[in-house]
Amino acid sequence: MQTPLPTKRPSLVRRLGLAAGLSLVTLLGARAQTALSGAYTINNAQATAGTNFASFTDAAAALNTNGVSGPVTITVSGGPYTEQFSLNQLAGSSAANRVTINGGGRTIQFGSNTSAQRAVVTLNGADYVTINNLLVDATVGGTSTATYGWGVQLLNNSDNNVLSNCTVTATTAAASTSTNFAGIVSNASTTSLTGTGTTASQNLTLQNNAVVGGYYGIAVLGSGSLTAPTPGVQITGNTVRDCYDAGLYISYLSGAQVIGNDVSRPNRTGAGSFYGINMTVGTSGATVAKNRFHQAFPAGSTTTSGSYGIYLFTLAAATSTTPNIIANNLIYDMSGVQAYGIFNGSSDNCKYYYNTIDINDQANTGTGGGFGFYQTTGLNVEFRNNIVRMSRTGTGLNYAILLSSIVPSFVSNNNDLVGSGSTYRTGYYQTTPYATLADWMMANGGSFDQSSLSVDPQFVSVSTGNLRPTAVALNGTAAPVAAVADDFTGATRSTTAPDLGAYEFSPPANTPGVILRSIDSPAPPVTTGPRTVTVTILNNGNVPLTTVQLAYVFNNAAAVTQTLTPAGGLAVGATQSFSFTTPVTLVSGRNGLTVTASAPNGSTAVSSGLSKTFYTPMVGTYTINKQAAGSATNFIGFAEAATTLNSAGIAGSVRLNVLNGPYTEQFSLVQVSGVSATDTIVVDGGAGKQRLSYGGTSGQPAAVLLNGTDYLTLQNLTIDLASSPQYGIGVSLVGQAVNNRIKNCAILAPSTATLTTANAGIAVSGSVTVTASGGDASGLRIENDSISGGAYGISLTGISTTSRSTNVRVTGTVVRNFFNYGIYLANHSGARIIGNNIHRENRVSTSTFWGIYVAGCVGLAIERNRIHDPNTASGSALPASGIYFTSTSGAAGTENDVVNNLIYNFFSYGTTYGISNSASSFARYYHNTIVMDSPSNAQTANIGFYQTGAATGIDFLNNLVVVTQPAAQGRYALNFDTPASSITSNYNDLYVGPVANGFTCRYGNTNYATLTDWRAANSAAYDQNSVAATPAFINAASLVPTSPALDGAGTATTLTRVPRDFANTLRTSPPDLGAYEFNVVLNDVELASIDAPTSPLTPGNNPVTVTVRNLGSTTLTSLVLSYTLNGGTPVTQSFTGLSLAFAATQQFTFTQGLTLSFGTYTLAVTASLPSGLTDPTPANNTRSVTLQQLTPNNDEPCGALSLTAGLATTNANSTFTNLASIITPACSPAVSPQDVWFTWTPTTASAPLYLSGAPAGMVRVFTATTCTTGFNQVFCQASGTANTAVGNVTVTGLTPRRLHYVAVSGYASGDATGAFSIGLTPLANRPLVASTALTVFPNPSTAGASVTLRLEKALGTGTVTFINVLGQVVRQQPLANAAEQAVITQGLPAGLYTLRVQAGSQTLTHKLQLLP
């Protein structure tokens, strides 16, 4: 007989398996060479011979070696069998030649210590195998101590297999928390429980099995591909108990059928969170129906984990044609720290129909909440015809339905949402809870559950799992869904009036009932004016309906009630239309109508209600005011206003004034009908710039979403996403959203996020979820806004270079502290980027800096922008570009212009480009000022203007380029990397200074050091009329030059394109170089720096030295310098006989220096009268510096303080007194004690001194001839221990009525200095009398920071007062009864303050300097 060929090529694993099987030839005799067909047995009571195999191993060897030639049935008897059973690809197996193993309830068991062979039963490429009624035990009767224990595994394309009626046991031990243990596994890995891949198994049927234990009970993993998920999986009728994590786990499956399973965890202790079913990435077209998910934890147990009945995280796998349908499931007895009935996490196209969810946990005492249905994000999700009942104790809130973010295309309706207890809320949307169903119906502009109920379903018996309702109000109140034809039991659903929840049911006999089927009138579209209210009712009871009470409430007015008595009675299941006599009058905007039907046949049956919201076109002025009730002219939030605009449109101009923020929600608009250039929408936050806060998500990153919205103005709003961790766009214009305006807004994009996917202040895109996808925002105006944070400050992306956006303006806007791009501009025609301020000095975590990034644009104007400080805080070694063009070629007549821009403070440790042009033709760079003058050394190169990539028509004229920052790889005013390019460069100032590695230009691979060298390059093609002069800016804060070499040094005549300068001053002809026109000053002196003294000051005289620069065009021959201290009397000195050329500097020292006592001072120095003439530019004449004298006044004996009854003082910052007659202390080892001095005239030969504080560790007493000579030590006493107070001492050896000098220091030379007290009377008996009893640190401090005040001892309660230099009280705060407390300086400007502490009769003061 010829052995059939394999139906598919075996993998390497299978080929190795076939080869290994040949070794059994000698064991099996001639049969080993013959394909199997027919009936066989496995019986360990008999030897392997004939049609019997003594073990599963022998049977596997025969099948793997010989294959099959017909249907094979193997019946198991005997046992138990302690071994593994592994089938590889079986030659000859097919739909007709199936291998069936009838287990007969017999046991195969094994515990594995081999990572790649974890399962008791493995189908490793085997197809068309059925295993029925086999007991598979991976615990070996609970005795296994093995590392691994999977019951059954299918892998390596094991297709078309069936596992039915088996019992599969994995470990349930509390300590077994590993994925090493599982029940049934179908995947693509021998070692990873969740391994996916192309070798996943198709057409698997798992039917009527009992699975106990394991990390997952059943795990079926597919291909790992979203485009080719694994088909044909059926998981039906299984009972899964006591898993550690998920009962059922599936991913990357297409069309999976998960039906009729029972998943619970009644006995597993120590387990993690419970997932009845976890449907994860890549699952589409699945049906999950008629399952029970219940008892998440054993009765009476406690846990720190949560529970999820059904958990979906399928992302975008399901589509509108392959939705995941979850229907007719029972979810109950969910407990834990948090309990979720259904969790929809970022899962699109999921349909939840006819499920019954009962979360009833009366033992919970925690703070975690309960959720019937919970959704994060997901497109096109439906939640219909479900019953959700919530009753959960504890302090956490419980919600029937919670939607954590904006939910596009989400539908929730025809549900029963009911709960009990003080913590129950019907719904939650974004950030707002809604207590009642009526409240929930108002959420998001009336978007949810308008035809839903809130009625106790009156289940038959939850304790036995019978969740069939009996409440008549639920009978026939569902909306038919064609996809669900029957109920949990298989009973056929009504096609016209099905019941809510998983069961079709009939109410008790003789029960009258009525429900509202529909509100038929009014019907959209609607306009203002009177309308008749018409409804349709259904008799859902089981007796004829003879009477019913109908009522409606319109726009929160009083109810209108009317009784209906159907002639002859309305038959069971019949419907009837009814019109109210009293009409409603629709008003402009939103209109709410709620209709109820109650009291059928006079009974007390619960009423049925429907709500509908109608929108008429808006016109006029409205408010968004959450502190006022919703009305025809007021919306309680942005979402409600958006719903009205989206639904109703406008009939004339509309203004929305925002009041009483902040608001925490999204403002999402679509195309609003009725808008035009004359009929616009304005949303105005007013003078207070009302705040709209939002936490962006990957699916909905935008706080304000304009999705196809036109003619909208957002003004005076604060849009805050600063705390969003990664995703967040302030204003997102998506698709074609044209003629919009964003004006005077403060937009706070994510402040620390680093993802560029959906992270910007303002973004124009073709996608809701992507920042820089092509969209069309033609006519957009971004005016005078402030934008902070984001990966992009502003991202404006047109559709393509063949479909560019037009007429976009960005003007007067501050863009700061972005991660990557300041302004990103792509695919635009005629855009204007004018007068903006772009910088990044405070962002620590950064990427490459692009001030203005341009691609694919024509006719562009970038004018009068400031671009500066790319990496002040970060120290980044990544590149930085001020203005960057890439593949953005204009054409003759539609050139891209870069004009009058300031690029400065442009430092980065990486390569830095002022302006960069990459393969961008017809670009004109005129009158820009580029200054790269940081003293810090860059690691690579600094380039003022860089051109790379072949391009033509590039003009670089009348620019000012300064590149003096040191750079390891060179610094260049110009770098023309591509010699083939056509560039006109002339009439520029190209200054690189004398520092090493400075080159005027690099052309190709050649460096040209000087301007003279550069002029000779490329046949004298460039910069024949340019200069290389220091611009001599007026001062460090100004980029207005003063150099005569730049005055009128531009093109022969003013460029037509640049009639005015950065400051809007008319240009002269010929014009000045750079962004500013300026006048050459004959006599101008700049105070360039204060060189000395520096803080802290030294004791004694401190010379005052300054550097001045001559910015006048004539030689400076004399000047006058003066300085003041704290605004006091000036010290003035004239300096003559000078010969200081233009831009040269010279240092001067005043004859009179500074000798200052302890304290903080402001030194201001002014230069004036250059060459004896008035200085016309005084703005650069004065500089100031804050100085501190930290050395105490009594640091030396000549400054000694007179001892009184008591002094609170300090020896902080004191020095060693090194006088020849002062000997080394005899009472301590100190060689150079840091001492302070006091004078004392005692009246007796011995007297006490009272000291406290560790800095007073030693006291010495001297007589002296003068304060510098004749010192004789008469007394010395020390504490004996470092940093320890000497305490009270009795001084001996005194000469009565003679002046003595007292030195106080620490015990040792290295002791800490600081505050202490000394006096002639006991400390406890005297008040604090000196301001030195109060210390403040740090001092100086930074304005806005917290400082600490420290007292020698607590004074009791009182006040702390800040007094400015004008003597004004600017702040007070309470003084605590403590020796130390924090003092807040938030809101105080920089300056010098007196800090006054008052408590009872005590008053202490201290100076405090606050720096900017």
TrEMBL record:
This protein's name: Right-handed parallel beta-helix repeat-containing protein
InterPro entries: Beta_helix, Ig-like_fold, PbH1, Pectin_lyas_fold, Pectin_lyase_fold/virulence, Secre_tail
Every Right handed beta helix domain range: 199-387
UniProt signal peptide: 1-32
Pfam families on file: Beta_helix, Por_Secre_tail
Keywords: Signal
Sequence ranges assigned to domain Secretion system C-terminal sorting in this UniProt record: 1336-1408
